[in-house]
């Protein structure tokens, strides 16, 4: 069975569902969104990721209709929605606080939007039952929001926002209030529901792990700008800037000067008295240009003996070990004072571990392990 | 032990300042009027046995015979009810505006609502006499603007009583409603709009039901004192306005019929117990909902 990869953004004929065209949003003097252009396609699970204050919530509120656009236009399915009030948009939102109506039961909360559409009683009942089933809350239909748990409330909020079958569902930090274990379960549930309903989801989050898990594409934002939009794997493996590399996961950044040493290969001079680092890059760098080499800790090998085959190898001293159970992160200090993080899976029991504090160790990585970044 | 002592304090307070005076009034209401000091018999000087033997419900029977009293009660109820509705209509938008106002304004607005309490209540009611009288400020303004050709008669009518009550009790309506609206999560209103409500629908379907406790609390805080109100109807209302507080005062001071006056007071209190109990239950329900 061949499975087609879902990647409408690579198809030039595909029409985006949402189109931000040079959108700028200012609050007085403050520019929250700065000349932003972005396409989101139907059935995508799109994540807006960034630290607080980066403008991701403003973007979501503009999609919902709670904020107006200062400049530029936002299109939904080819229509400018700039002046459409929130109640007339085929967009629903799941609020960070869930915003469940405390005076209404779970059932009435889910039916709330349907009743506004002047649907018949039978239709409403059928749809509410369907939604309750989708989020597995049939037994709690008569309860009030304060009589159910946080996780259940989250599901009611989801059911309520999906009940009207919106073209686009906005999720504002949907799992922020849940504890870690429940959050992880719910992430998969969200993905399942997104797939079953075929609704386009746009999620706002500051949790990079969450964005990576659920999203088909992630937009990393910083101070009103989108820094990179790509699939989670591409964002992780090929960040386009130090900011993205640093924001997503753990990374070692080595600064230096490049000199080309072959086809797509470069030598990075980074520290006096150390041999240059060999690194491959698809981006072209010129002789003497400044560059940052970003390498993920898990791509660095750590060993007690000097590895024979490694392209880049250097000796250092173990400064610190962070034991995470399944993984251990070693902080290795190089002679120049630079600290490199190397991560290994703990396939052996702790007692058998052969590297400990203050040990001299070798760290090594291949030429393609890291990414060379201009900035 | 300490807990019992703590609980005992408010109960003791109630005993001394409410229950004891009430029992005294109740006792007087069961006595007969007399030309004496105090102006009723029997008193404790007659001995306990004689005291108990001579008490009767004569005065309460009298209240049912003269239709002045039930008419006064009814009229008080109507005036208190209409005033409460009017106060709600004026107070709700003010409370709503306060709750929606920017944070830095709220303390000032709250202050402005409470500010009238800094002046004596009597002086403020007298000021309304100056405003509403035939040669008063309001009529002068209306005549000057040419909106009326002759002065409106407002003072000494029931309209003046409504104006007085609404003005006086407005803060009691605003504050609980403001407290309820202030607690409301702004995203609830947005959620309602997001789900297809117009602003108006969102207000009726979400904001009003969720501020219900504030509305109920405010309404009782206005209704209960307005029912027994005496100063406003006697200063602004004139002879046409029949209110039980005024009847009570006249019975007590003009007729010097303490027993009948006491009976009127006892009945008034019993009537007030109904809304007070309802008010208490509302408060209790609200507290339970918050837990």
Describe this entry's structure for a reader.
By secondary structure, chain A is α+β, with helices and mostly antiparallel strands. In chain A, 22% of the residues lie in helices and 33% in strands. Chain A has helices spanning 56-64, 106-116, 121-134, 150-162, 180-197, 208-214, 232-237, 242-247; strands at residues 18-27, 30-40, 45-49, 71-76, 79-80, 91-94, 168-172, 200-205, 217-222, 225-230, 252-262, 265-269, 277-280, 290-295, 301-303, 312-323, 327-333, 339-345, 360-365, 371-373. In chain A, the strands form four sheets. A six-stranded mixed sheet of chain A has the order 6-7-8-3-9-10, with helices on both faces. Chain A has a five-stranded antiparallel sheet with strand order 13-12-11-14-20. In chain A, strands 15-19-16-17-18 form a five-stranded antiparallel sheet, with no helix packed on it. In chain A, strand 9 and strand 10 (225-230) form a beta hairpin. Chain B has 291 residues and is mainly α. Chain B has helices spanning 2-29, 48-54, 58-65, 67-100, 103-114, 121-132, 137-145, 158-183, 186-194, 199-210, 212-227, 231-237, 244-254, 258-290; strands at residues 32-33, 40-41. The radius of gyration of chain B is 24 Å and the shape is globular. Classes of the chains: A alpha+beta (375), B mainly alpha (291). Chains A and B meet through strand 6 and helix 2 of A and helix 9 and helix 10 of B.
């Amino acid at each position: 069975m061949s499975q087609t990869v879902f990647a409408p953004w690579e198809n030039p004929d595909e029409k985006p569902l949402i189109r931000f065209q040079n959108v700028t949003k200012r609050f007085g003097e403050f520019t929250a969104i700065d000349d932003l252009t972005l396409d989101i396609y139907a059935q995508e699970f799109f994540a807006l990721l960034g630290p607080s204050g980066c403008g991701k919530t403003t973007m979501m509120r503009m999609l919902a209709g709670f904020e107006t656009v200062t400049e530029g236009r936002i299109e939904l399915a080819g229509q400018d929605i700039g002046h459409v009030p929130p109640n007339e948009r085929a967009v629903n939102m799941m609020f960070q606080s869930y915003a469940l109506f405390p005076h209404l039961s779970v059932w009435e909360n889910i039916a709330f939007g349907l009743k506004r559409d002047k649907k018949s009683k039978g239709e409403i009942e059928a749809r509410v039952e369907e939604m309750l089933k989708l989020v597995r809350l049939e037994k709690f239909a008569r309860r009030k929001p304060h009589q159910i748990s946080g996780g259940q409330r989250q599901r009611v909020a989801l059911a309520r926002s999906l009940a009207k079958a919106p073209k686009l569902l906005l999720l504002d930090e949907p799992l922020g209030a849940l504890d870690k274990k429940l959050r992880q379960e719910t992430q998969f549930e969200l993905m399942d529901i997104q797939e079953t309903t075929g609704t386009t989801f746009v999620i706002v989050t500051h949790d990079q792990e969450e964005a990576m898990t659920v999203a088909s594409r992630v937009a990393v934002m910083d101070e009103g700008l989108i820094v990179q939009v790509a699939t989670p794997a591409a964002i992780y493996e090929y960040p386009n800037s130090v900011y993205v590399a640093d924001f997503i996961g753990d990374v070692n950044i080595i600064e230096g000067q490049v000199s080309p040493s072959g086809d797509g290969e470069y030598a990075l001079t980074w520290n006096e008295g150390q041999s240059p680092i060999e690194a491959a890059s698809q981006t072209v760098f010129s002789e003497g240009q400044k560059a940052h080499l970003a390498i993920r800790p898990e791509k660095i090998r750590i060993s007690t003996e000097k590895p024979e085959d490694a392209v880049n190898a250097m000796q250092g001293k173990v400064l610190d070990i962070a034991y995470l159970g399944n993984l251990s992160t070693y902080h290795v200090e190089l002679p120049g004072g630079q600290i490199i993080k190397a991560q290994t899976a703990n396939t052996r029991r702790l007692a058998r571990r052969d590297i400990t504090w203050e040990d001299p160790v070798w760290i090594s990585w291949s030429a393609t392990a890291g990414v060379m970044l201009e900035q | 032990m300490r807990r019992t002592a703590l609980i005992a304090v408010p109960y003791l307070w109630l005993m001394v300042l409410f229950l004891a005076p009430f029992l005294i009034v109740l006792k007087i209401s069961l006595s007969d009027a007399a030309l004496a000091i105090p102006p009723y018999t029997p008193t404790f000087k007659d001995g306990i046995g004689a005291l108990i033997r001579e008490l009767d419900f004569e005065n309460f029977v009298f209240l049912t015979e003269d239709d002045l009293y039930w008419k006064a009660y009814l009229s008080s109820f109507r005036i208190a009810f209409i005033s409460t509705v009017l106060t709600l209509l004026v107070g709700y938008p003010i409370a709503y505006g306060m709750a929606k106002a920017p944070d830095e304004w709220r303390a000032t607005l709250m202050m402005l609502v409470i500010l009238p309490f800094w002046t004596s209540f009597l002086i403020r009611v007298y000021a309304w006499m100056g405003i509403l009288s035939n040669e008063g400020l309001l009529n002068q303004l209306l005549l000057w603007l040419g909106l009326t050709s002759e002065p409106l008669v407002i003072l000494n009518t029931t309209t003046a009583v409504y104006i007085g009550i609404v003005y006086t009790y407005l803060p009691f309506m605003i504050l609980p409603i403001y407290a309820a609206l202030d607690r409301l999560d702004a995203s609830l209103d947005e959620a309602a709009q997001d789900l297809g409500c117009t602003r108006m629908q969102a207000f009726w379907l979400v904001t009003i039901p969720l501020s219900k406790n504030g509305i109920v609390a405010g309404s009782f805080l206005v209704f209960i004192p307005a029912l027994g109100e005496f100063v406003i109807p006697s200063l602004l209302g004139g002879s046409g306005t029949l209110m039980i507080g005024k009847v009570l005062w006249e019975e007590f001071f003009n007729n010097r019929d303490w027993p009948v006056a006491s009976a009127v007071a006892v009945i008034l209190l019993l009537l007030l117990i109904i809304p007070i109990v309802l008010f208490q239950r509302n408060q209790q329900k609200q507290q339970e909902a918050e837990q």
